[in-house]
Write a structure and sequence with these properties.
By secondary structure, the chain is an alpha/beta fold. The protein is globular. It catalyses: a 2'-deoxyribonucleoside 5'-diphosphate + [thioredoxin]-disulfide + H2O = a ribonucleoside 5'-diphosphate + [thioredoxin]-dithiol.
């Protein structure tokens, strides 16, 4: 029997029985029966067996399944010791979905896809050995973190570690173009190259001149951003990793760019086929000034990037529009277009209702709390990466006259429930930071020099979290309650503190910091002011009981950390970011990211398989009242949770808002006496609330329609799978 010739797939039938109540109860035992049947009927017969561990590694290396170099860094007796430890931990999947996802998408298979060459334990061992880079102590620590599922590397890292034929370890990339044909051409080439090697690509188009702007003083010659968007969409479609996955990209535009209406219109279902974008994602960067103009119900001006760059001597994205708005309005040398701010706000909401786009980046919010010297101008395909960039200049031969700085994303995630059971929170975080450091140190994207430069100079990583809602349910906290907000704040304060400690320790060991550390708010100590002005330790008895006393840093601890950071620096320019992490959360048997669940029994449509059902982690009669669907929840509660985390996260979070096309009665007070249908006003209010609460970005708007369909499905495979 082989994976191509399975004769007994009763595990799918058993799993589907979860969705058939018995005496009014959910038969959760059917999921355990499905899990066991899957392991017995699918995995067991199709797992390649070896006489010894040494025979296994020899075979996988000689047949070009594993790289040889990372294995040769260790004495084989140590590898046997590591495997013995992993086996002692008695790991087992807790759900059918977890096992199915791992073996379908992550386990190494033979070249003909007929048999499995790895178990979960094997993948953990290879990750530990690979990212420890010959350090036996780190390898043991990393194996401990992953096998107990306190740490989950991002899919590109977890999937590709150790494989001879692999993609990159990084999850996504951010690049920008400036206002000339050479740079546009270089950007398209970069998009092709980055899409080829893996990961989603974010591209900032705000610096491009608008339709009708002059080219060499010929009035009305420029075509604007939409044709460039079409070129990029075709590039991603073409460069799809040999058909393994659809190339994925997002383009960002400033809300004050004159092409903003046509930019949004290109994503509409009824857009002309010549301009309609079918697969490219859209994001809008929104300064504070837009919210001010909305509040005042005022006119707003859209400014020619071509003229702004000539007047200010820097690309449009780097001009502080909130600060310079009145000066730009008064400047006759800058061409401008007048519209109503609330009309544009409504257009954004209309498109979000229809498609889930655009993402919203509150760009002034991101820059206001940015501790790094420089300007954040955009985000990535999942809206959680927010780092400074500098623009490049390219000559007629496509050589860099001035090499700017762009971004690659190196991600991983803590599992909140399992981290709260960790014996040493700080030790666990240091192990994770060191694993992520390996990725940034060994990433060398030479096909796009600005990405390579950014990575080599910043050493940035993005450690995040998953499983927040399942933790709340397990501990009888309602999502969005005061206690849940308090827990979230304390957890991410700890994540921030211990990642700072780890980065500082690595900088001290190596005698090296990220580029321009001396110009950061870390170097002058001002970054730490908020931790002296306010305590983020828990105050309620319930949350206090969840955190051991020795886990909470005191003011003296913060003072010691501040002094050490000012003296020795930080190795990583950026440390924290919360990705949407979808399918990888199933393997961890936890809920995705910081989001509330959608259903207590989630239904997933798997290609060539049909429907698979996944019960929420820890689901029981005891926890059921605490598992409210996101679609039945006031989204201000979600925003409040994310705002509590954002206080401590130096980058961003992939915050999705979940709406019903018919809104349940009593959910939002402003709906009283009005239609119960979701309107653009509802989204306007929620976006303004998120901005007021200090949230840096809003990812998708997902709408559950009256005909049981979802609008705004997630396409960011790099972070999600």
């Amino acid at each position: 029997m082989s994976l191509h010739n399975l004769t007994d797939t009763s595990y799918f039938d058993l799993n589907n029985e979860i969705n058939i109540p018995v005496n009014g109860q959910i038969p959760l035992q059917k999921d355990q029966e499905a899990l066991q049947a899957f392991l017995d009927k699918n995995v067991g017969p199709n797992l390649v067996k070896f006489d010894s561990l040494k025979d296994r590694f020899d075979y996988l290396i000689s047949h070009n399944y594993y790289e040889k170099d990372f294995i040769s860094q260790y004495d084989f007796s140590f590898i046997e010791k590591l495997y013995a430890y992993l086996k002692e931990q008695g790991f087992h999947f807790k759900s059918f979905m977890a096992a199915y996802k791992f073996y379908a998408q992550y386990a190494l298979k033979t070249n003909d896809n007929d048999s499995y060459l790895e178990t979960f334990l094997d993948r953990v061992a290879v990750n530990a050995l690979y990212f420890a880079d010959g350090d036996e102590n780190l390898a043991m620590n990393l194996a401990d973190e992953i096998i107990h599922q306190r740490y989950q590397p991002a899919t590109p890292s977890f999937l590709n570690a150790g494989r001879e034929n692999r993609g990159e370890f990084v999850s996504c990339f951010l690049i920008q173009t400036t206002d000339d044909m050479n740079t546009i051409g270089r950007t398209i080439n970069s998009a092709l190259q980055l899409s080829r090697i893996g990961g989603g690509v974010g591209i900032n188009l705000s610096n491009l001149r608008a339709a009708g702007d002059p080219i060499k003083h010929i009035e009305g010659a420029a075509s604007g951003v939409v044709p460039v968007m079409k070129l990029l969409e075709d590039s991603f479609s073409y460069s799809n990793q040999l058909g393994q996955r659809q190339g994925a990209g997002v383009v960002y535009l400033s809300v004050f760019h004159p092409d903003i209406i046509s930019f949004l219109g290109a994503k509409k279902e009824n857009a002309d086929e010549k301009i309609r974008l079918k697969t490219l994602s859209l994001g809008v960067t929104v300064p504070d000034k837009f919210y001010e103009l909305i509040k005042a119900d005022a006119d707003m001006y859209l400014f020619s990037p071509y003229d702004v760059e000539r007047e200010y001597g820097q690309p449009f994205s780097y001009v502080d529009i909130t600060k310079e708005y009145d000066n730009m309005v008064a400047n006759d040398n800058i061409k401008k277009t007048k519209i109503k701010a609330r009309d544009l706000e409504t257009e954004i909401s209309k498109l979000q209702q229809e498609s889930g786009y655009p993402y919203i980046i509150n760009i002034d919010t991101a820059n206001r709390v940015n501790p790094i010297d420089g300007t954040i101008v955009m985000s990535n395909l999942c809206s959680e990466i927010l780092q400074v960039q500098t623009p490049s200049t390219v000559d007629n031969e496509q050589h860099y006259i001035k090499l700017g700085k762009d971004i690659s994303c190196n991600l991983g995630s803590t599992n909140i429930n399992n981290m709260m059971n960790a014996s040493d929170f700080g030790h666990s975080i240091e192990t994770m930071v060191r694993a992520l450091t390996y990725v940034t140190d060994h990433s060398n994207i030479d096909v796009v020099p600005s990405i390579q430069k950014g990575n080599h100079e910043s050493h940035s990583i993005g450690l995040g979290a998953m499983g927040l809602h399942s933790f709340f349910a397990k501990h009888h906290m309602h999502y969005g309650s005061p206690e849940s907000i308090e827990f979230t704040s304390t957890y991410f304060m700890l994540l921030n503190y211990w990642s700072l400690v780890a980065s500082n320790k690595i900088a001290k060991e190596r005698g090296k910091t990220f580029d321009n550390f001396d110009k950061s708010k870390y170097a002058d100590g001002s970054y730490f002011d908020k931790y002296f002005a306010k305590s983020f330790a828990p105050t309620s008895d319930k949350v206090k009981a969840l955190f051991a006393d020795d886990m909470i840093p005191t003011k003296e601890d913060w003072e010691a950390l501040k002094e050490s950071v000012m003296k020795y620096g930080l190795y990583h320019q950026n440390r924290l970011a919360v990705a949407p992490n979808g399918s990888i959360s199933y393997i961890n048997d936890t809920t995705a990211s910081l989001h509330p669940i959608i259903n207590r029994i989630e239904e997933r449509q798997e290609s060539k398989i049909g429907k698979i059902y996944y019960p929420a982690p820890y689901l029981s009669n005891d926890t059921m009242p605490y598992y409210t669907s996101a679609y039945d929840m006031d989204m201000r509660k979600v925003i409040d949770i994310y705002a509590a985390a954002q206080e401590h996260i130096d980058q961003g979070m992939a915050l999705t808002l979940f709406m019903r096309s018919t809104i349940p009665a009593g959910l939002y007070e402003w709906k009283e006496g009005r239609t119960d249908k979701m309107t653009t006003r509802d989204l306007n209010i929620l976006r303004n609330y998120a901005h007021k609460k200090g949230v840096k970005s809003i990812y998708y708007i997902r709408t559950f329609t009256d005909d049981q369909q979802e609008v705004g499905s997630n396409q960011c495979e790099s972070c999600v799978i």
